[in-house]
Amino acid sequence: MIETISGPRRLVSASCAAFGVGACLGGIVTFALLGLVGRAAHSFGHALPFVAVVAGAAGIAEARGMAVAPQIRRQVPEHWRRVVALPLAAGLYGILLGIGFTTFVYTFALWALVAIVLLLGSPVTGVLTGLAFGAGRALPVVLLAPIVHVRFGRDLVDRMAQRPRTLSVVRLAVASCLLVVVLAVLGTAAGAATNLGSGTDPSVSGTSVVWTAPTGGVLRQEDGSGAATVPPRATVGGSLLAWRDGSTVHVARLADLSPVLDLDVTGVNAIAVSDEWLVTRAQVPGGEKLTARSLSAPSTVVPVATAHTPTRLGRPALDGSLLVYHVAASRLSSIVAVDLAGGTRRVVRRSASGQLTNPAVLGADLVYDRLTNTAQLVQVGPIDRRGSDRIALKLNAPSIHDAGHESHYSNHTRTRRPRPANWRLWTTALSSRNVYVTLLPRIGSPASARLVSVAR
Amino acid sequence: MRPIGESLAASTSRRGFLARTSRLLAVLAGGGAISALVKPGTADAFHFCGHIYTTDSCPHPTGLPRVDAHGFPLRAADGHPVDDLGQPVNTAGQPVDASGRVLLDPDGLPLPPAPRTRVCQDGVTGRIGRRARIDGSWYRCCGGHIRKLVDCCAHTPRRINGDAALTGYCYSGRRVYCVMYYDTKIPC
After folding, report:
1. B70 touches chain A (CB under 8 A)
2. What are the CB-based long-range contacts (under 8 Å, 24+) for A156-165?
3. Which burial class, exposed, middle or buried, applies to B37 when counting CB atoms under 10 A from its CB (0-12, 13-18, 19+)?
4. Could you report the predicted ipTM of this complex, rounded to two decimals?
5. To which H or E segment does residue A395 belong?
6. What pLDDT sits at residue A176?
7. Potential cystine with A314: which of A191, A210, A261, A325 (Cβ 3.0-4.6 Å)?
8. What domains are there in chain A, each with its CATH number?
9. Which A residues, 389 through 428, put their C-beta within 8 Å of a C-beta on chain B?
């Protein structure tokens, strides 16, 4: 390819530019499409462990210099350079090389990248990967074509073409890059979060997600098909939307915001709604109180829980008649589930040393925050089966640790020093696809809270 | 003249030293003039002042195993109470910022308190599944104040380091699982 576009010399610059643009374009289109396909498939759930496996396997294969398989035994159409202008032909060649699947494959990295982009299912990641891939393919050609006429350039080309050692070194470099991918994945330890922007207190019904942004309430479909403005401090459940405005709680139909119920709850500071129930948390003298109202008989108030300061009751979350909330005390942290229809309650998670907060429920699945002194985890698992929760999102420690030894004394200690996170896990919501989490800044105003989503 | 604190710290019997120190503290509490005569002498240590053996620190929310008189965790740097997450807390157990203001959520409500448990009796017990307790302790002069160093004891053959546990200042067959310390305000 270098020699193909290196002459005539007056066209080298234009040919190199066209080749570089073509290679990047081909890479972007290819990998963006793979990202779209991956997102459409949506069947991988936790992709990162698989990404680590793929990158690790490809890296080992590269480092060992194994024969690349599957192999594509084709080259670019040589006659193009004779039937069209050379810069145009160079651009087309670039596109073919950028696509990756159309010519001979020199490393396992191509197949690894294809698998990784498919697994991640992110078109943006695909675009960036394609750009890097195209640039990587174009760079040697663009750099060497202008100097191939001088002795130094010819020596370099000969070395590339005739000495296997050159390819081996390149493949070792590729293996190193794949190792970096593995380490990055292991460092992340959990699914990467998608930033939805400033906002707090998410709730989900079906594919409708509602949260409160600084500019007001937001209603968005998970598939990105639509977005609308709703009142701030709103929550969604079933076919209903509820929001609080001062001490007034409004309930309306999600479809057209037609009113269902308006009532006054003194001190209300959190609400949850489903097609059957409305649950409110209100400040009362000396503490907080959770109460439930059946939407078929809203005048009947069902007391659910009371806490005395400094013990706190968490934001309620509903799915049908199943209510979950946290109880945070200085001796015990627990998550409670209440069957409002049956009147039964049970502690579904508890910890005497960690903090379990902000649960949400969907069917038989529970999501909640688990904070310890070393890490912050968003965990998802069956509501009635402890010990089988998996980590959907992991942040660093919620507080600053010292070195574990005093200065001027031995540093020989096994005490770990986890890095502090910049964010603190807060309210959650759960859909069939995603987990939504509010992140509060560890330092600074809670008004700059951020909402993220992570695939379940 | 050898500093009083150092002489006491160098005593062969730590229990005897404890008794003498108790008497000394009463004397020292009587007047700053006496304390001014006591030249501070920093004790030798493994990874924190006063600790002269290799048993590692008890698991502590912020690292160095500083506790209060009741065994609850304190931040080593300034002695501020911390909860089990390592967050500074006020007397009500609510997390606070560097200025002591209660941390708030986006609705302006205090963030929920996290559990705050005793480092040895609760934390180590939960970690090893056997009841841990404080049996004995010894005192050293650290940073100009008397420091009480505490063995956290349990019926365990292994210490936190993973190797064999020693008797240390533990009684009734218990062995030292880990160590922690309490900084008094008594000058030395």
Report:
1. no
2. A157/A2, A157/A3
3. exposed
4. 0.76
5. strand A390-395
6. 85
7. A325
8. 2-190 (no CATH), 194-455 (2.120.10.30)
9. 397-406, 409-415, 417, 426
